[in-house]
Amino acid sequence: QQPVQSPQAVILREGEDAVINCSSSKALYSVHWYRQKHGEAPVFLMILLKGGEQKGHDKISASFNEKKQQSSLYLTASQLSYSGTYFCGTEKSGNTDKLIFGTGTRLQVFP
Amino acid sequence: NAGVMQNPRHLVRRRGQEARLRCSPMKGHSHVYWYRQLPEEGLKFMVYLQKENIIDESGMPKERFSAEFPKEGPSILRIQQVVRGDSAAYFCASSRPTDPEAFFGQGTRLTVV
Fold first, then answer.
1. I want to staple A22 with a disulfide (CB 3.0 to 4.6 A). Which of A88, B14, B18, B24 is the partner?
2. CA A74, CA A18: separation in Å to the nearest integer?
3. CB contact at 8 A, A92 and A35
4. Looking at the complex, does the CB of residue B39 fall below 8 Å from at least one CB of chain A?
């Protein structure tokens, strides 16, 4: 079952914040976040393994609520380089299982 | 340490021909995953392989598609008798056995004419 991401698209001006949500109908072991620029490979951002644990680097962070089977990606003070499509990938078990990717959220940051 | 290498980057095939896509995982990575991406769409899981074993092929079409990851050499995704609907970007990702972090290759863009 494919995770559902919201919103589908976001338009920001540089310096604004955004939140991208990822919701699954099944119990999850982990959530992975990737960013893909047009015509390029998805690039790994971060992985969240435990319920409620928040992770982040620079101005991008994420949380994972295991009980609600939801994860959120927080982008603060957005930069032009943040533009791209963000995908969450969910993993059901901990044995390096396959990732099932969400529907994607297209983010555009303008000057 | 080179990243995940896929070749060719672009592949054009006529309907009915065979397409062979190659993926060399990162050094130390023994798990390989293949995904298909249609334009403006998400990544659809196809198959998960470890060396000489297919672990999960639940996303593979039942006919014309096959994948292997031999003891030596790259993983191969083979599409026989291609049709226009096979046109897509095919991405390969790899990971270590004990590390869930997966890294993607640059993809192979298959165009069927």
1. A88
2. 6
3. no
4. no
